[in-house]
C-alpha cells in the first residue's frame, strides 16, 4: 500500500506564505508519505501558459525529495459545454508530461432554479462528455476518475449511475471516505456500492453535528440535508475510517490511500497523525 498526502492539505499554509507548493514535496517526504497529490487552485493558477513550466518545477522538487507525484485533481463543470473539456485536455497533457498516471476531474455542480434537472435527466449528456475526456486521456497514458464531490454529483447511487453510463475501461472512481457525508450518506454503505470501481481513495474525516443542534459557527459547513460538518484529523471524527478500510481490503484494493486534511488543527501534526492512523488501521485488518 502507498500512502500519499494531497497538496490541498497544505493550502492554508500556502495561502499564508508559510510554505510554497514546491516546498510541500520535501515536507511530505519528511512527514513519512510515499507520494503526493497535486490539486488545481493549490498548485495551478488561471494562467494556462504556466501550468506545464510549474508542473516541471514540481516534478523536479519531487524527484529531489524522493517522493512520487501520484495524481492530479482538477475542477470542471461538464454541463457548461465543451470549454471545460478543452481545459481538462490541457490538464491531461500536463499530467502526462510529468508522468502522472491518474487524474480526477469534477463532473458538475448541477443547475439551479428553473434550470434544475435531476441527475438521471443529465447523466446521458454528462457521460458523453466524460467519455470524450477519458478517450483523450487514454491516448496520453492517463486514467481519468470521478469523485463523490460537489453535492450534485456526490452520493454513491449517482456516481454508480455515471460510471455505468460512461462505460469505458479508462474511467474509474475516486472514493472519498468523508465526502459521502456531505450528501448525508453512511460512508460504509456508500463505499460498499462503489468499491468494485475504486481506483483511488481519499481518506478524510469530519466532525458531525445534526441540524437541530446549536449552530457550531465558524469552521463548519452544511451537508446537502442541512447538517453540520467540520474537517478534522483522520481517525478523530465521525467517519468510520477503519470499517471503510475493511471494505477496501476485502475487495483487494491495493492502489493508494491519500490523506486529505481540511480541518482547523495544526496542519503538519494533523496529516502526520492521519497517516499514522491509516497505517495502523490497515495493518490491524
Question: Nutshell version of this structure?
Answer:
The chain has 285 residues and is an alpha/beta fold. Helix content is 39%, strand content 19%.
Describe the structure.
- The protein has 285 residues and is α/β, with parallel strands linked by helices.
- The chain is built from nine helices and eleven strands.
- The protein is globular.
- The two termini are 13 Å apart.
- The model has no long low-confidence stretch (mean pLDDT 97).
The number of helical segments is: 9
Find the count of extended strands (DSSP E, 2+ residues): 11
Share of β-strand residues: 15-25%
Name the poorly predicted regions: none
Shape field: globular
Q: What structural category do the secondary elements indicate?
A: alpha/beta
Sheet with the most strands, sense and barrel status: 8 strands, parallel, barrel
Element string (H = helix, E = strand) = EHHEHEHEHEHEHEEEEHEH
Give the strand order, joined by hyphens, for the main sheet: 1-2-3-4-5-6-7-11
Helix residue percentage: 25-40%
**Averaging pLDDT over every residue, what do you get?**
97
Q: How far apart lie the N and C ends?
A: 13 Å
- Computed over alpha carbons, the radius of gyration is 18 Å
Amino acid at each position: 500500500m502507498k500512502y500519499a498526502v494531497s497538496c490541498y492539505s497544505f493550502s492554508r499554509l500556502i495561502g499564508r506564505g508559510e510554505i510554497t507548493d514546491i516546498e510541500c514535496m520535501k515536507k511530505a517526504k519528511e512527514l513519512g508519505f510515499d507520494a503526493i497529490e497535486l490539486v488545481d487552485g493549490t498548485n495551478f493558477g488561471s494562467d494556462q501558459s504556466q501550468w506545464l513550466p510549474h508542473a516541471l518545477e514540481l516534478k523536479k522538487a519531487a524527484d529531489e525529495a524522493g517522493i512520487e507525484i501520484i495524481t492530479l485533481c482538477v475542477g470542471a463543470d461538464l454541463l457548461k459545454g465543451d470549454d471545460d473539456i478543452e481545459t481538462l485536455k490541457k490538464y491531461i497533457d500536463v499530467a502526462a508530461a510529468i508522468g502522472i498516471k491518474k487524474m480526477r476531474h469534477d463532473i458538475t455542480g448541477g443547475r439551479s432554479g428553473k434550470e434544475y434537472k435531476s441527475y438521471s435527466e443529465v447523466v446521458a449528456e454528462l457521460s458523453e462528455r466524460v467519455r470524450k475526456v477519458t478517450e483523450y486521456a487514454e491516448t496520453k497514458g492517463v486514467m481519468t476518475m470521478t469523485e463523490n464531490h460537489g453535492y450534485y454529483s456526490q452520493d454513491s447511487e449517482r456516481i454508480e449511475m455515471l460510471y455505468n453510463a460512461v462505460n469505458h475501461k479508462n474511467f474509474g472512481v475516486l472514493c472519498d471516505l468523508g465526502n459521502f457525508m456531505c450528501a448525508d450518506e453512511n460512508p460504509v454503505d456508500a463505499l460498499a456500492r462503489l468499491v468494485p470501481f475504486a481506483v483511488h481513495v481519499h481518506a478524510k474525516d469530519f466532525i458531525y453535528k445534526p441540524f437541530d443542534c446549536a449552530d457550531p459557527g465558524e469552521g463548519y459547513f452544511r451537508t446537502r440535508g442541512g447538517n453540520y460538518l467540520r474537517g478534522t484529523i483522520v481517525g478523530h471524527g465521525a467517519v468510520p475510517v477503519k470499517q471503510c478500510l475493511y471494505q477496501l481490503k476485502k475487495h483487494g484494493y491495493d492502489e493508494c490511500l491519500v490523506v486529505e486534511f481540511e480541518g482547523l488543527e495544526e496542519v503538519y501534526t494533523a496529516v502526520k497523525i492521519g497517516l499514522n492512523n491509516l497505517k495502523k488501521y490497515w495493518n490491524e485488518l
